[in-house]
Design brief:
Blueprint (H helix, E strand, L loop, with lengths): L7 H8 L7 H11 L4 E4 L13 H9 L2 H11 L3 E4 L7 H4 L18 H13 L6
Parallel strand pairs: 1-2
């Protein structure tokens, strides 16, 4: 069997547009939609976990902050989130706050005109994957 297209329209209908800021968000939506009850996070944000206070780690967290919304939604729906090994996202980071974040105007990889300048700058400035 060949590849299967990601059900973007279905995920947006189920969760709303503007909730997809990084690839983690797309995985989270599909996992919730398919009824997974346990997420194991391992190595999320590598290689920045060894220097979480660095400017590169801060930029990574900023670009992936939308995943916090998904983790909070998952926990609200009873999903067990296991932090196994090194991760940029930790239980302390996503905390116990209720889901309040407003949707973004674009979607990572699709209609991100509003965010395109940021991602172009990151690409053009050549942020290395090491610290």
């Amino acid at each position: 069997m060949g590849s299967v297209a990601y059900p973007r329209a279905q995920m947006e209908a189920e969760f709303g547009k503007g909730r997809f800021g990084c690839q983690l968000d797309y995985m989270a939506a599909l996992a919730l939609s398919e009824g997974f009850t346990r997420w194991i996070l391992y190595g999320v944000g590598q290689p920045y976990v060894s220097h979480p206070d660095s400017s590169k780690a801060a930029k990574w967290l900023h670009a992936h902050r939308s995943f916090l919304w998904w983790m909070r939604l998952a926990r609200q729906r009873g999903v067990e989130i296991v932090f196994d090994g090194p991760n940029m996202f930790t239980p302390e980071l996503f905390g116990n706050e209720p889901i309040r974040e407003e949707p973004m105007s674009g979607a990572y990889g699709y209609d991100m005109e509003s965010d395109f300048e940021h991602y172009s700058r990151v690409r053009d400035e050549g942020f290395a994957l090491t610290t």
